Amino acid sequence: MNLVHLLLRHARLTPHCPALFHGTAPFATYGQWAARSAALARHLRAAGLQPGDRVLLFMRNHPRYLEVLCAAWWAGLVVVPVNAKLHPREVEWIVENAQARWGFTTSDVAPDLLAGLERQIDIESTAADALLEPVPEPDAMDTTDRGPDDVAWLFYTSGTTGRPKGVMLTHRNLMTMGLTYFVDVDPVSAQDTIVYAAPMSHGAGLYAIPHLMAGARHVVPASGGVEPAELFALGWQMGALSTFAAPTIVKRLVEHAEAARIPVADCARAFKTIVYGGAPMYVADIQRALQAMGPRFVQIYGQGETPMVATALSRTLLADSGHPRYLERIASVGMAQTPVRVRVADEQGNSLPAGEVGEVLVQGDSVMAGYWRNPEATAAALRGAWLWTGDVGSLDAEGFLTLKDRSKDLIISGGSNIYPREVEEVLLTAPGVAEVAVVGAPDPEWGEIVVAFVVAHDGTPLVHAELDRHCLAQMARFKRPKRYITVGALPRNNYGKVLKTVLRQQI
Q1: Fold category of 336-406 in CATH
Q2: Looking at the chain, which terminus has fewer C-beta neighbours within 10 angstroms, N or C?
Q3: Helix 30-46, helix 63-74: angle, nearest 10
């Protein structure tokens, strides 16, 4: 099994079909993509890289990202995608930990040489042009055989609580993820187009696999990132787009649609499917998104350790506003995706009844092989073939999973458990509140108290007493924040997750 065979299928069947675009400009057909990846694979082999060796990808979103990715797999190598916003010193730690040999970069992200690499190639350089000079017959060049359990993608966690851990994702893991997309997320055809606005080092790049399976078109915006006006224009020119987006990106798209007064019908011409995940999507936000843009949305829940595969909430369920449990359903992250089992367990691993809160466990062929060079962390996360996610939630009688928080974010005040997300959901319905993040702060009397960081709409002053009254009208007194801190913005990591560790340091 080797994921590069997905590319070869379409290079043989439809070699002249457009595959890669930079903005609206064609970049490569499927035949050209295969010919360039084969050429680079040949050079990697000639340089002495052996199957299983690691290759670093530290670059902004770029069409050549996918060419390098497939070249590495062609040669039997493991890719190490790294978010382009990391500091070079952070990347050098990953280089050393992964024992990466070659690195592919862009000059804006890595203007200087990274320590530890045997060779570093700017993908926009003449050296890269030479390495990617198409071979005349890519089909004639052998691919390196890899087993289903051989590592294909080494993903480093965000490391918000310490050094990141390298998640070992195998060819089987990624093949499972790709096939699952068609069943639980969205059907894809060769006429579809995926756009990479979010970092290709994470979920957006992973979703290249199902679209490669279908022979679809792959577009990197000319800006290389999230510019709502650009994305809408791309969809109108190239056909409705599919994309993966963190909730913060969804919010930007929705705000643009509202500000520009784009009708729902025109939103449908711009976007086929917006898959969201990676951070909480609050009920008020998804309701607003559906009203502004229509049934474009699918929610997924997964982790780097089970990439994009745990649960899914379909567009049908999100649009079924007449269902008597509609609000409970859209507050959930959906039901277990087809190839996995999901359960909620106590500390001993015993499954809990419907409605009871515990740790979320996932089992299936999408679950990682373990953490790179970290047997202790592997043993803690993988127990009895189950991934212990560290997320806290509950399953209802129908199988819908509602996440409460990360286990480390649980607040215990006066012996009572308080889930920050529950408080955040309430505060987001308060007049004038644009964003909120709730954390626990040490307290000599209560053990911990609830502290809410709030961002106001348009800088409108927030009266903390009014926020308090709003909370008391909707939740138990012990759950309400004891302190409110108004901030201009919430700190986030490169994938849009709120950095609660940073907020705790500000208390």
Answers
A1: Luciferase; domain 3 (2.30.38)
A2: C
A3: 50
Stretch(es) of the chain classified as CATH 2.30.38.10: 336-406
Encoded tokens for 437: 């993040």
Lowest-pLDDT range of 38-42, 112-116, 248-252:
248-252
Q: Which two tokens stand for residue 60?
A: 């902004």
Q: If you average pLDDT over residues 376-381, what whole number do you get?
A: 96
Name, in order, each residue with C-beta under 8 angstroms of 463's C-beta and a sequence gap of 6 or more: none
- The CB density around residue 356, as the number of other CB atoms within 10 Å, is 12
**Residue type for position 387:** L
CA proximity to 275, closest of 156, 340, 188, 338: 188
CATH topology for 410-505 is GMP Synthetase; Chain A, domain 3 (3.30.300)
Mean pLDDT lowest among 19-33, 147-161, 202-216, 330-344: 147-161
Strand-pair category, 306-313 with 297-303 = antiparallel
CATH 3.40.50.980 intervals, the chain: 186-294
pTM: 0.87
Residue among 129, 141, 124 nearest 11 (CA): 141
**Per-residue pLDDT band at 160 (split at 50, 70, 90):** very low
Measured CA to CA, the distance from residue 434 to residue 349 in angstroms comes to: 38
Task: Give me the CATH topology for the region 1-146.
Answer: Rossmann fold (3.40.50)
CA–CA dist 83, 59 (Å, integer): 8
Residue type, 298: V
Residue 119 main-chain phi, psi, to 5 deg: -150, 140
Closest residue by Cα to residue 109 from 122, 98, 118: 122
For 100-123, the pLDDT digits (tens) are 999 999 999 999 999 999 999 999
Residue listed under structure tokens 């859209």:
330
Q: Provide the CATH topology of domain 186-294.
A: Rossmann fold (3.40.50)
